[in-house]
TrEMBL record:
Belongs to the phosphoglycerate mutase family. BPG-dependent PGAM subfamily. CDD domains: HP_PGM_like. One of its GO terms (cellular component) is mitochondrial outer membrane. Its main location: mitochondrion. The gene is Pgam5. This is Serine/threonine-protein phosphatase PGAM5, mitochondrial. The keyword RNA-binding does not apply. The keyword Membrane applies. GO terms for biological process: positive regulation of mitochondrial fission; programmed cell death. It comes from Serilophus lunatus. GO terms for molecular function: protein serine/threonine phosphatase activity. Keywords: Hydrolase, Membrane, Mitochondrion, Mitochondrion outer membrane, Necrosis.
């Protein structure tokens, strides 16, 4: 619902001419800027933790977050904000990354928490959550996609660069949806801890995937997928 035609009332007439000034009103609603979305998977964390608060980053995970933060800073971009999942491992990853990007505001959201976005096709034997999880998590993760992945607002004058620190399932689902691929294929993508996925959303709504799960900036012995 962000295409210009969806943003205007086609029945509304100009008071001066009595005719609809469609072209002028469409121009007023058109996006002018490009959005750059950087989706960061959290770093390695303690898998033995029973509750979320116990699933903190491992020493290696903290190293990974430092490397990711250094890589993002080295790009020389003016990042607008960091939006992160409210889960512990994503919050800790964000705190480390943000040290390399001073002044960039951080926003926590439950929408980006890990979950089961949609039943994968083909199914896998090693991961079978209860059906209710797909209904609960799927609706939330779809809401995250619609809320965060869209063309720039018409009022936005300059290109923006935004970081989202969240989870593998969420990122994989978002990538499939953004590229208009069948979302049931999300589990076929693989993402390393601390990896960077770069989506570009043009003013006309077209989406391009610049990088998927990039960890080329990490030494091989620091790369994990847990």
């Amino acid at each position: 619902r962000r295409e210009p035609l969806a943003l205007i009332n086609l029945k509304k007439k100009s008071e001066e001419t009595g005719e609809e000034e469609l072209a002028h009103r469409l121009d007023h609603c058109k996006a002018k800027a490009t959005r750059h979305i950087f989706l960061i998977r959290h770093s390695q964390y303690n898998l033995d933790g029973r509750a979320d608060k116990d699933r903190t980053l491992t020493p290696l995970g903290r190293e990974q977050a430092e490397l990711t933060g250094h890589r993002l800073a080295s790009l020389g971009l003016k990042f607008d904000q960091i939006i992160h999942s409210s889960m512990t491992r994503a919050t800790e990853t964000t705190e480390i990354i943000s040290k390399h990007l001073p002044g960039v505001k951080k926003i926590s959201t439950d929408l980006l928490r890990e979950g089961a976005p949609i039943e994968p096709d083909p199914p896998v034997s090693h991961w079978k959550p209860e059906a209710v999880q797909y209904y609960e998590d799927g609706a939330r993760i779809e809401a995250a996609f619609r809320n965060f992945i869209h063309r720039a607002d018409a009022k936005q004058e300059e290109d923006s660069y935004e970081i989202f620190v969240c989870h593998a399932n969420v990122i994989r689902y978002i990538v499939c949806r953004a590229l208009q691929f069948p979302p049931e294929g999300w589990l076929r993508l693989s993402l390393n801890n601390g990896s960077i996925t770069h989506l570009v959303i043009r003013p006309n709504g077209r989406v391009a995937l610049r990088t998927l799960g990039d960890t080329g900036f990490m030494p091989p012995d620091k790369i994990t997928r847990t």
